[in-house]
User: What shape does this take?
Amino acid sequence: MTAEEELAQIAIEVSACTLCRLHSSRKKAVPGEGPADADILFIGEGPGFHENEQGRPFVGAAGRFLEELLSSIDLRREQVFICNVVKCRPPGNRDPMPDEIETCRPYLDRQIATINPAVIVTLGRFSMARYFGTAKISSIHGQAKTIDGRLVVAMFHPAAALHQPNLKQSIEEDFRKLPSLIGQVRKRSAAGQPPPPADVQQLSMF
Ligand code: URA
Assistant: This one.
């Protein structure tokens, strides 16, 4: 199976999934979207109202802000893969529950294994917890950690940042660090080297 076919297969399974309670209130499941060979993968929290209507990730206000952030570093959403820790909308936009995240985890695991991105950006605390445990987002945002041969960077969730000027400034600054990070990873990979081996490291060190 090609990577595109594997992603399409995952999307079919997600759309028919009944493994947790979220399936019973969803309108459309939201598997995620983007190129199978994306260098960067963004992981949000879960679909909101508009995503549930359209079956696409980040299409509401947070999505427009994410597109602005991408555009600030000359990227378009079509160039990156965007998905969530849970693929169906938690009713009333409540937080996803631990068992829902756990049940949905294999879909995200398979997406990551298939796309094999050089850089993963977690948006908000639920995707951050997957890689950074109980760390506080206020202390680790904008820092990268090498995990399974790729760099993972935690950032604030665009929906939270949209309405809080200090968080907005933080996420804008964190985004500005991404091009140099991606450049470094690409340069190392072209030279046959793995990503920088240090554990948690400031992007400004690159
Ligand atoms: N917020 C998320 O975390 N994901 C979406 O897809 C939309 C809003």
